[in-house]
Amino acid sequence: MSGPIQISNRLGKFHSNWIWLVTGIFIWLISIFLTDQINPYYLNIILYSGINIILAVSLNLVNGFTGQFSMGHAGFMSVGAYASAFITTYFQAHHVDLFSNPLIGQSIFVGSLILGGLVSCAAGYLVGLPSLRLKGDYLAIVTLGFGEIIRVIFLNVDAVGGSRGMPGIPPLSNFGWIFSFVVLTVFVVERLIKSPQGRSFLSVREDEIAAEAMGVNITGAKVRAFVIGAFFAGVAGGLFAHQLQFINPVTFDFNRSFEIIIMVVLGGMGSISGSIVAAVFLTTLREALRPLQEITQVDLRMIIYSFLLIVLMLTRPNGLFGTKEIFDFLPGKKK
Amino acid sequence: MKQSFFYGLVLTSIMSLSLIGCTKKNAGTTGAETQSSDDSILVGEVGSLTGPEATFGISTNKGIKLAFKEINDAGGINGKKLELITLDDQGKPEEAATAVTKLITQNKVSAILGEVASGRSLAMAPISQQNKVPMITPSSTNPKVTAVGDYIFRVCFIDPFQGTVMAKFAHDTLKAKKVAVLRDVKNDYSVGLADFFIETYKKLGGEIILDKSYSAGDIDFKSQLTAIRAKHPDAIFVPGYYTDVGLIARQARELGIKAPLLGGDGWDSPKLQEIGGKAVNGSYFSNHYSAEDKSPHVQSFIARFKAMNNEIPDGLAAMGYDAAMVLAASMKSAKSLSGPDIKEAIAAVRNYQGVTGNISIDADRNAIKSAVVLKVENGAFKYQTTINP
Q1: Is residue B245 included in any domain, yes or no?
Q2: For B142, nearest residue in chain A (alpha carbons)
Q3: Which residues of A touch B18 (CB under 8 A)?
Q4: What is the mean pLDDT of residues A24-36?
Q5: Residue A145 to residues A74, A84, A141, A257, B227: CA-CA distances in angstroms?
Q6: Minimal C-alpha gap between B123 and chain A (Å)
Q7: Which of A127, B17, B38, B135 lies at a C-alpha separation of 20 to 30 Å from A96?
Q8: Count of CA atoms in the C-beta half-sphere (13 A) of B132
Q9: Is B281 in the same domain as B317?
Q10: Residue B31 above 70 pLDDT?
């Protein structure tokens, strides 16, 4: 490569790293100065949208970019949720004075989120290593089974409340942390799929035999995608637990996995911006249809919700954006 | 890199737009919001109108609607009409939390009714508590629900109370002298009932001859039952869920144990007789309410409910009705309709005659009230007696 191109590349990288940082700072500015002004109801919807973005984008890495149909995302979410909630409630019960210092309290929270993500990673590795040798339907069934196993385990562990759930989780999630992790998730997934590692994920999706012939360790690639996806699902679970302040095993049943899959499929398998748009759209839609229920006194929400999904799937079978990104549709982009 | 730039830009703009949009909307609507006006009081209800537990939410909703209609027909609360806003939570805790946030911050309700299930009530309670809006749950029996804070109440008894009820029933009605206990050690519902049963029964002068345990999901109970048979008890207290109880009853009869089995509302399912068959006949369990209760106010409630909905109310409808009535009575006696005043009034409720028993709110904001005892008889649960605390 000649010199000038390399320099412009460097500049470009520098430039694009900056925008992530600026976004991060911007998020914290909003979090500190603006969240008090927002109606808590709207804020609640925005925060759940954020959590769903993390879940959808991380599942898209597995389902969309690597082409492995996982149905156990709620399982990983619950592992992270329980792990981080267990840590913070422990500290709250035994060292309540630590939380009086916001700095230490917040670091415990973030530490618990990361740890929840890592525990989830470990679960992902354990499940992924044997099961990712399977393909298609079989993998879907194994991951679905895994999700249910995790749920039943939590149902029977007394330390985390069993079927009665875990109340009294400190409300530590806020706009800043949730959207910092949204940005981190999008950043990591976006950068990853452009790296050699990510290219090998894509090659596994397109053609496993060809990928293997080119020297890609396909099981390795699948497990890596699975583990990274599990990490962010775990973090999202932790954020969810500290937002709702209460978790029980029923919250993480297979219906939740399907919800996340719907977001990914609707947005387009293999489109990060598609997942973001679908996650925000579906989370908001449920609440946007609420006034209708208040007026008609009949709950039509789920009917309209399902109807919209059917229409979208009929008109855009590959999801909103397919494998493209939102900016591919903008004018000025070369085909 | 162009894409990265785009992501950042898109994320930033989406967030700023949504936030600005929301703040504006908020500022714009505060004036015109549908908060409690001069002639009406808004009450919010969150229930599972759809989803796997839809029957619970719908029953409760019918009970609450009947209560509100009767209150309004009788002149409302000091001249103001009660207005109900019901939101669906699809049986999901996070939807319940969102719905209760909406009711409190958007609709500015004066009080919250619901949820049926403890799982959802626990998700709602912190939000009600934080915003100082009183919340009454009709039928969440988990003790932790009202432990969230002083704005959270319930009109049902908590689990362990049923142990006390059955001890009184065994001693006073069945005249049992010696009772054996068989409890599910992994289930705190069962353990709580067993502990309270033993405590009360001993206080009444009875004798606990044996205290055995099993774990939910066990198939074979013969070793415990053989030990129990050797002691010849007058009754056996089995505070488990219907699945295990059905099997235990079958095996007890096979071993020739004739003593009746006693239990709590965990038995309340048609499946009990599907599993237990004839073996469960002649056994007794405690419950919240029975449509066969001959008390005039219960029968009159059933008649009014039938006139409105054309069906016999189940326990959840009766408790929804009671929750709404307790709230209305408290609003009438409250100094003002502010959250703290309504809360004080609810906490002061004593001996309110509800359909599901006389309700008094204790210091832990739980209801102290009577329970009914039902007898299992050839495919039906027959009302036996009402036991007061």
Answers
A1: yes
A2: A164
A3: 46
A4: 82
A5: 11, 23, 6, 12, 40
A6: 6
A7: B135
A8: 7
A9: no
A10: no
Region B33-41: what's the mean pLDDT?
Answer: 64
- The answer to whether residue B50 neighbours chain A at the CB level (below 8 Å) is yes
Stated length of chain A:
335
Contacts with B64 from chain A: Cβ below 8 Å: none
Say whether both B79 and B141 belong to one domain: yes
Q: Cβ–Cβ of B105/A40 closer than 8 Å? A: yes
The 10s digit of each residue's pLDDT in B171-186 is 999 998 899 999 888 7
Q: What is the largest CA-CA distance in chain B?
A: 84
Q: What is the pLDDT of residue A47?
A: 93
Contact between A16 and B5 using a beta-carbon 8 Å cutoff: yes
Q: Are residues B64 and B147 in the same domain?
A: yes
Q: Which of residues 217-256 of B touch A (CB under 8 A)?
A: none
pLDDT of amino acid B25:
44
What residue of A is the nearest CA neighbor of B6? Answer: A327
Beta bridge partners of B375: B284, B382
Euclidean distance between CA atoms A179 and A182, whole angstroms: 5
Chain A interface includes B333 (CB < 8 A) = no
CB contact (8 A) between residue B49 and residue A299: yes
Domains in chain B, number: 2
A133 touches chain B (CB under 8 A): no
Print burial letters for A179-194: b (CB count within 10 Å at least 16), e (below 16).
Answer: bbbbbebbbbbbebbe
Beta pairing, strands B40-47 & B81-88? parallel
ipTM score assigned to the predicted complex: 0.82
Within 299-328 of A, beta carbons closer than 8 Å to B belong to 299, 301-302, 325-327
Q: Does B222 lie in the same domain as B336?
A: no
| B10, B148, B188: residue with CB nearest A326 | B10
Among B143, B158, B151, B88, which Cα is nearest to B125's? B151
Answer whether residue B8 is part of any domain: no
State whether residue B358 sits within 8 Å of chain A by CB. Answer: no
Q: Tell me which of B254, B287, B320 is where a domain ends.
A: B287
Say which range, A11-25, B87-101, B141-155, has the weakest mean pLDDT. Answer: A11-25
Burial class (CB in 10 A: 0-12, 13-18, 19+), B230: exposed
Note whether A244 contacts B: Cβ–Cβ < 8 A.
yes
Give me the domain span that covers residue B224: 161-287
Asked if B251 and B280 touch (Cβ cutoff 8 Å), the reply is no
Mean pLDDT throughout A35-58?
91
pLDDT attached to residue B30: 37
Q: What's B247's domain CATH number?
A: 3.40.50.2300
The predicted-structure confidence for A185-220, as pLDDT tens digits, reads as follows 999 999 999 899 899 999 999 998 999 999 999 889
Which residues on A lie below 8 Å from B3 (Cβ)?
Answer: 190, 325, 327
**B248 domain-assigned:** yes
Q: Are residues B136 and B177 in the same domain?
A: no
Q: How do residues B301-313 score in pLDDT, each as one tens digit?
A: 999 999 999 988 8
Each residue's pLDDT tens digit, A258-299: 999 999 999 998 899 999 999 999 999 888 888 877 777 666
Residue B6: pLDDT band with limits 50, 70, 90 = low
Identify whether B26 is part of a domain: no
On whether both B115 and B262 belong to a single domain, the answer is no
Mutate to test the interface with B, among A30, A37, A42, A53 (most CBs of B within 10 A): A42
Distance CA A11, CA A2 (A): 15
Go through B348-385 and write b for each residue having 16 or more CB atoms within 10 A of its CB, e for each that does not: ebeebebbbbbbebeeebbbbbbbbbbbbeeeebebbb
The reply to whether residue B22 touches residue A183, judged by beta carbons under 8 angstroms, is no
Query: Do A42 and B25 contact (CB within 8 A), yes or no?
Result: yes
Q: What is the pLDDT of residue B19?
A: 53
Scanning every residue of chain B, which has its alpha carbon at the shortest distance from the alpha carbon of A22?
B8
Task: Judge: A39–B106 Cβ closer than 8 Å, yes or no.
Answer: yes
